[in-house]
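name: query_chain
kind: protein
chains: 1
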Amino acid sequence: MVLTFAQNLVSLRPPVRPLVSSGVFPPCFSVSTPRSCVPTYFPEKSGSAVVGGKARLVARASASTSLYTPNIAESLGDVTIFTAAGEPVTFKDLWDQNEGLAVVALLRHFGCVCCWELASTLKEYKSKFDSVGVKLIAVGVGTPNKARILAERLPFPMDCLYADPERKAYNVLDLYYGVGRTLFNPASAKVFSRSDTFRKALKNYTIEATPDDISGVLQQGGMLVFEGRQLLYARKDEGTGDHAPLDDIFDVCCKAPSA
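structure:
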């Protein structure tokens, strides 16, 4: 099953692969990256972010205040997703839209090994988020039964986990999607620096959590922090395993006026 899954993914790859020299990713984007996304400056970390309404460079791509419009919370708020138990719910019902603090972590999909690692780290941070009154919301691509597999086997708190089988939230947020981002992006190389947490998270991993619709595995994730309807932090993952540093996320939450 694993071999067939991998073969299906490889069959979707672009006709030209990015250059790789001596097994090390070059400091550039994959060939599938639009020219408009190619940066002119390479800071040390990876990912694009807007923090506190102001852009700052923390990635292999330049952050921009135009990453999202001021009404992104309203656009996202009307999106319907599902609890891990299968109940429909809109984003605007997940946290207090006036003053509530929320960390919205969009995983790639429930069968992604890197997302099991991220979910494991989020679980470890949950007590810190709780201590400053922050609601943790983790969303993944797949049906609720796939979400339950991750929640039960990792394990992960089911009341914080939501399923987006049609990738509606991901489309509203315009998160990256495609073969190049998923399989060939150099930002994914940072996974190798987290080998210990990676192995720990995969102790009970199963590929059965992968979405039945294989197109969902090409979706990339992201991280957002809201205070009510105000966006405090936004980051799009550049590639598989390119996750937002949770210390940065917690720092943003602690500096919020309502924290």
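note: The longest strand covers residues 101-109.
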